[in-house]
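Fold this sequence, please.
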Amino acid sequence: NPGNPQWADRDRFVLSNGHGSMLLYSLLYLTGYPMTVEDLKNFRQVGSRTPGHPEYDLPLGIETTTGPLGQGIANSVGMALAEKLLAGEFNREGFAIVDHYTYCFCGDGCLMEGVSHEACSLAGTLGLGKLILFYDDNGISIDGKVKGWFSDDTPARFAAYGWHVLAGVDGLDAQAVLAALESARAEKERPSLICCKTIIGYGAPHKEGTAEAHGEALGAAEVAAAREALGWPYPPFVVPDNIRTAWDQRARGAKLESAWRELFGRYTASYPEAAREFERRMRGDLPHTWENLAAQVLDGALKQTAPQATRASSQAALNVLGPALPELLGGSADLTTSNSTLFKGASTITPGARAGDYLHYGVREFGMTAAMTGIALHGGFIPYGGTFLVFSDYARNAVRLACLMSVRTVLVYSHDSIGLGEDGPTHQPIEHLASLRAMPHMSLWRPCDAVETAVAWKLALERHGPTALVLSRQALAQQSRTPAQVDNIRRGGYVLIEPSGPPECLVIATGSEVAIAAQAVRAANERGRRVRLVSMPSTEAFDAEDEAYREAVLPRALTKRLAVEAGARQSWWRYVGSSGGVLGIDRFGASGKGAEVFIHFGFTTDNIGQQIRELLEE
């Protein structure tokens, strides 16, 4: 419904090949969405609503940000999965309140990208029958005719995935496309691929069918020739009233939504509790019991006294949150046991199933992350998914787009450092913390124990944006805190150990290094030095605090500072300054027992103590 682009049961449309953005913008204008001619004229201009690639703008009818090819396909897989699960949960006999399709439009480039394989393989396995993918098969990419580098039998490829394939459709014949679409809609158990053979730049007599029609403007002469060839005599940006009227879908959309609202009204009368829950879920609100639930998680963490890996602390939190939050939709890229992402009582989503709250994504980090974005964009769920931190690289561009859109996803990254041990440098993240922290709109938390992990989960689920929870493989000691210190964890950085007198030096640490640093700081203070320890699980949250709080934790006058983190040193100099030091790792790791690798790289109480002494003696 163009009059209400946020209608819960609307069909979703994704333009995966986002460089065709003006096609989407034009159609939104013609069909009656709040797109104006002025918006079209301002295409690609700073501050316009029509950027070069579509950017998520639901009130305008744009369901997701696309541009990096292939990701729109994966987003649409997530949307279709969300539709299927919500329908299974909320629909009742005679009340199909969740009953819509997800349409995706893609080109050759999207299908060359590896993420299309990850996502479409998963969609076929899951039997997402309400997903329809249009393949604009024009045989051209920026470099020219794709037959020199893309000779796949695409229909056979998708048939092998388990899709319903409609091949050989003439994309220039509207009736042929409509017939294929009706066939796709009739298929309920398999996703459908409609292969439309088209001509790029159709109507431009000298450039149609060539790469020139793909990557550059046609030019005034060719535009004039195209106008003549297509029989379009009207001035630029002018659409005759009769054509506008024929395209306008506002009345039809309003009628469709009105019929749905009448159905939902009767559903509400028959199933009031389910109706309220559906509305809450689609709004993205947490339940009224949320604060009590979060307090329960924190209370359990405060009672944890034995050393515990933060991945296990995360699972303990999920064991409370999962059964109480039906919107939580978990998963892992084939590392469920290692990531500790499966909570007690979780129901695995299986092929053909219409219910479940945990998905085995398989070894598909990129596809998983982009599908999670689609799930979150659809509404009704808060997805979380796990892998090793080092494999976040596989998914990096999907993480970036999630940040660009500020969608609520939780990225559970375990095995966060050299502490993972024997798997060695291929699996030991070094640059990843600095890299993810550098990404705008990312909230990264690297907790040091169960209590910080509990707080991180609370903030992640409350935040409308992506959160990365970076967790240890190895067991970590629990830190003692006052209630005020527990409350300050949410601020990203706080004083964990304060000396008896005014501090003369401070140490900043994160994650697994906090316990090591705490031993060194206590030893220094016992020798009569005055050293403060700051635990900083989230630099992003700390940086967002007001200046007074940041000054209280990291006083400007206190210039003797040491940052300790088992990762790249790059992001820490801003906190320690030119008079400080950073104990980090600026080379790849080593294979060996985790504790021995820590010693090898100098992450020991003795070495931290020595660096404190050197700072104080300068």
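The chain is about 40% helix and 15% strand. The two ends are 69 Å apart (CA to CA).
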